[in-house]
Amino acid sequence: MTGFSAGISAIRFGYGLGPQTAPYFRPDDLISELDRAAAVPPLFPLEGVQGRRDALIDFASREKAARAERRAVGTGGAEDDAIKVLRREVQKRFRRDSVLRVTQAVLSPYAFHERLASFWINHFTVSASKSPVMRLLVPLYEAEAIRPHLAGSFRDLLISASLHPAMVIFLDQAKSVGPGSRRGKRQGGEAANENFAREVMELHTLGAGSGYSQADVQALALMLTGVTLAPTTTETVFNPRVAEPGSFAILGQRYGREGSLDDARTILSVLADDPRTARHVSSRLAIHFIGDQPPHDLVEKMALRWRETHGDLSSVYAVMLEHPAAWTASAGKTKMPLDYVVSSLKAFGFNRAQLLNTDDADDPDGESDMMADAGARAGAARGLGQLSVETLDALGQPLWRASNAAGFDDGSGYWGGPGQLAQRIAFARRIIARGGKSLDPRDFLQATLDEVARADTIAVVNQAPNREAGLLATLVSPEFNRR
Fold it and tell me: Which InterPro entries match (predicted)?
């Protein structure tokens, strides 16, 4: 590895530079932060992991009761009102979770961990737009299925994400019934849903065009029948009444059925260890962090380390961070909207109170801040955090609401149009008004772009007619919008 730069490290592998950004001095620093970060619970979901699980049980119970009443008395009564109230409560929780998600990214001292969390939640996309219960589930999904496995094995991450109820609902797995199962034989016309199997192979593991067939997808779909949800707890369970019996030929191997969730864990483990998965996911990591056309030898080295370590993700990240392409001064990627919004807020050093518009927190750097209680979180629907969430909607990357299973587009060209620039300028003006009154634009430029600042940008900032124009010149500059 040559050419390591603390500035490039913060901009390319974190959310940029700011007054509270702790510099790293070698790639190992980024890897070593991952275990420390995993030990700190994220700010979301609003009630914490167990509190959100309790809320899901309460939601299922209240919704079931309201629907039963509506069937009994017809529509238009108090039961319809009960459902509307319940859904408004869910939407309110989701808005607060969204603000807390942005706040987490801005305030966490573990920026590489935050960037990885955003990468993997996009790789294993689910959408809160699917249904009201998904608005409760998706923040929980990121907190308990994605974040704890960012530095571990891909196998564990794949199984955790695939068998989480958020994924089961999003890919309609709960509707999948084996035609030869007890329910399938009794009702007739039932079929295994292929959505889950296809997305696991195409998006999450092997990659499109990697050599699997439609017969493999169909066999995997049959093998995964039985994976469904418990109606009262919304937990993922195995239901033998809808599971297709027999054995299944997938990718040239035949698999029997044990009659539990272990059937799914077995085949997911095989897919995780496949060399095609190593190459596909390594490529996606390199495209996200290095550039739209990453060096071929980088991807091959990452895939080789993957195979040597059976998908140990920290080892794969280390190969990426040791490659010279990681430290070239020319920025390789246009920031996605979340990157831009978070790095802008980070550049001003906004604290917790400013982001949440509460008076309860003035310790934005400490790990204790990451563990604030639910009462303190209740004011999260106001302030710069809410402005940021609305801006992400306008920029086309609404939090936790990708429009399809492929997630948000990762290509630079997708996020570089005139509409993006206009929205980014509008957002920059608003946060300058909130945090730029005492800043010298020349100092701001140096503090946020360091050695990546171009001569043209330095000249524009130095010649700016006023403070606002100078600060805006940095936030809309090409190098601030790239990483």
Answer: DUF1800 (IPR014917)
Rounded Cα–Cα distance for residues 158 and 330 (Å): 33
| Per-residue tokens: 87 | 């859904």
Between 132-141 and 78-107, two packed helices, what is the crossing angle to 10 degrees?
20
Q: Alpha-carbon distance 294 to 309, whole Å?
A: 22
Residue 312 and residue 153 in contact, taking contact as beta carbons nearer than 8 Å: yes
| Residues 230 and 237 sit within 8 Å (Cβ to Cβ) | yes
DSSP reduced 3-state for 74: coil
pLDDT in tens, 324-339: 999 986 657 999 999 9
The DSSP symbol for 127 reads B
pTM for the model stands at 0.92
Q: Rounded to 5 degrees, what angle do the CA atoms 268, 271, 272 make?
A: 85
The stretches of 414-466 forming alpha helices (DSSP H) are 418-435, 441-449, 455-462
453, 445 Cβ separation under 8 angstroms = yes
Please tell me the total number of residues recorded for the chain in this structure: 483
The Cα–Cα gap between 138 and 128 comes to: 6
Give the number of other CB atoms < 10 A from CB of residue 29. Answer: 16
